[in-house]
Amino acid sequence: MGQRKRGAGRLRGYLFGCFCAVLLRSLASAQLRYSISEEVNGGTVVGNIAKDLGLDKSTLKDRKYRAVSSDADPLFHVNENDGILYVSRKIDRETVCSDSSTCMINLKTVLENPLEVHYVRVEVLDINDHSPSFQDNETTLEISESVLPGTRYQLKSAKDPDSGDFSVQHYKLSQNDNFRLEVKDKRNDIKLPILIVQKPLDRETAGSHSLTLTALDGGKPPKSGYMNILINVLDVNDNVPVF
What we know:
Layout: H1 2-27, E1 32-37, E2 45-48, H2 49-53, E3 66-68, E4 76-78, E5 84-87, H3 93-96, E6 104-111, E7 116-125, E8 138-144, E9 152-154, E10 168-173, E11 179-186, E12 190-197, E13 208-217, E14 224-234
């Protein structure tokens, strides 16, 4: 008798689990994915959710079709009359996804009577809307005239909020005879500019050198930022007194 009760209990548990699985499967559909560029105007169409999911547009309003968001000023909204997903306001990708190379916004849309939940992912694509910039527009180095050619000085790198090809890709040094530039790749696609002494320095010939370091991103055309480098050549006792 006890075994029959335990068996019946297990059967009910199994059937209840199957019922829940079927219910969850009916509530959530396959996830849709769209993409838009950042900075598009509010009112831009992202995608036709109703069409892509095969929903009956004539029932959307009565079923209170909407996008659910905890944000008081949501990035997207759904038109309950036609099931089209729209941008609510301009999106700055660097603000929304500052620490991610890929910017994905997850949305949940809901229909009532009966309840349906559909998930949508929107990728916000980067545009080249920022220029590289240095923390300081000018920097000063003091280098002894006794340094040997090949001596290296690491310079501060430029920053660019844009990602991928629109981040800093190249550096250029203004034309000069005494210094050259080398760029070292670091992790996370960071590039470090390194100033290298190319020819011996002579303070008596030139007490200072003025250079310009240019950072360029990968846009077409590229955007750029500049830093002026002032090099003061320090004297050493390399000349004897002469009468």
